[in-house]
Amino acid sequence: MTNDRVRIVSLIPSATEILAVLGLTNAIVGRSHECDYPPEIQNLPVCTAARFNTDAPSSEIHDKVNDLLQSALSIYEIKTDVLKQLQPTHILTQDQCDVCAVSLQEVEKAVAHLVPTAPKIISLQPQVLKDVCADIERVSNIFDVDSVQVLENLEARVKICQQKIQGLSLTELPTVACIEWTDPLMTAANWIPELVNLAGGQSMFSVIGEPSAQLDWDTLIASNPDIIVFMPCGFALSRTRQDAELLTQRSEWQKLHATQTGRVYITDGNSYFNRPGPRLVDSLEILAEILHPEIFDYGYKGTAWEQL
Length: 308
Description:
alpha/beta, Rossmann fold
């Protein structure tokens, strides 16, 4: 299957990373505007565009996204002309979250214009860590490549984390609030609570496998978590710092246990936590390093996370 006739367009960063880890980078002919890893795919034609300004304030982005979703418009558009030129045999997308990538509906609509090639649409729907492994296996089967070594490597890294925290008592497992958006305040969910628990923390506010939910400011203050980790969707470290610092200006912020003990952190959510691909295991290691610096030191500090 992985011959010269395979031409893959990936419309979501996590799918691009899955293809890359399986050794299929050379088969990718087009990408989304958000696909930026591995670096060698950055020169590929871009097949999507955002329908709003991603540099706008968080509250403005939130409102714009809601307006687009309520009007049944995907928040991203597909450049049908680029797709036509690329003549893909396969298109990878997702229908897990309309905010993360082009909706499945948009892809199907764009593909209808692409006949005669009629590319195969592969849609991923990961909610938890094992779904990501299942996606890697599924993609490997479609393109007839081996995923055994890739999956064994990812599973071994997860096991190492679990083994290292095994001896910790409940009192040594900090309560952790992961913030996925700052205005309005939202908690990170889906695979994030699972990663927190695997890294030796007690996840607050979110349910494993469930979508992210809004969090009342007073609830955050009253719950007083041991650790707060910012991982806004689509933001790198510098933008995350900017948004997190707006929250720290509120008077109650200084009273929080996490603030007083210096245990508030910012992360590169865009590269790691927001992408349900192979780098979710990197995200687990980042959390382990943040939660238990006395046990873990993977060297992510300064590039993937910093203290606020």
